[in-house]
Amino acid sequence: MDHALVVGCDAYPNSPGADLRGAVADALAVREWLLGPGGVPEANVTCLLSPSGGGLQPPDGVAAGAASVVQFGKAVARLSRVAAGPGDRLFVYFAGHGLRTDPFNPVVAHDALLLHDFDREVPQPGAVGVQDLLSRLELTAFGEVVVVLDACRNFPFPEPFRLGGLGFDGPAAAGTTARIYLLQATEPGSTARGHAVDGVVRGDLTLAVVDALNGVGAAKHFDETAARPYVVDWAGLTRYVEAAVPDQGSARAATATRSSSPSPTTRSARSRSPSRSTPTPRAPTRCCRSGSPTTTRAGPRSSRSPAQGRRRCG
Fold this sequence. Notes:
With about 325 residues, the chain is an alpha/beta fold. The chain has helices at about 25-35, 70-80, 130-135, 205-215, 235-245; strands at about 5-10, 45-50, 90-95, 100, 110-115, 125-130, 145-150, 180-185, 195, 200-205, 220, 230-235, 250-255, 265. α1 packs parallel to α4 and α4 (about 205-215) runs antiparallel to α5.
């Protein structure tokens, strides 16, 4: 059975002036896809949301914990105990602040995600290293793990700091051959962006990812061997996203190779029956780095608001 962890962090009470306005909205949009076309049972979707005063508030009926490091770590620990199998998939999504840790040595700097309890004066307790997260996800029993991080990867601090890890380093699940697929909003050193859509600030990366998952435009392709003929695989998704996000220093997609398992594939919402995430026998993409985006987004989009054009970085 598929599972998901969805995190949206707009509120940073320990860092004045750092609040965002679009991360919770993006997380709710991803949650909506997971519960609908994604086919993930609601009981298997863990939501962590920390709304700010200027951003979207979660609607009534959405069960969510705080987007804190403690709650995030507990959620990842619970996922490591799920009795999943090679045909099960885990989706992990994060929207909020992000950064890199060492401005003096950019090549060896680490990516970090900043949670609700992040404090500029003492950064370690409120930050989670991306590599620490991926290492923990590798210990789960899921066959495939899809990670989407809509966060900056710039250097906002003049001095480096060290990350503190994430939970216990337990043993890997027996027989696990998990394959991790990672999509980050930008190349190292760049900032993630967003704009207003119908009065709500949204992240450019997340808008493109949700469109791609729904089979918009060139994200899908026809596969006559599939039960539902229109499919969205990892290669198609990343191509679409790279083409749809023209101003973020290039989105970055990568595949962490752990086995020869197939590339993750989702059924397009435009196929003849409801979408469902299912693997298909397709050669995996080992590493997809983005090119220069050129494809036009499908569907109406409101114009970019200058006052809301840098949603991820305050």
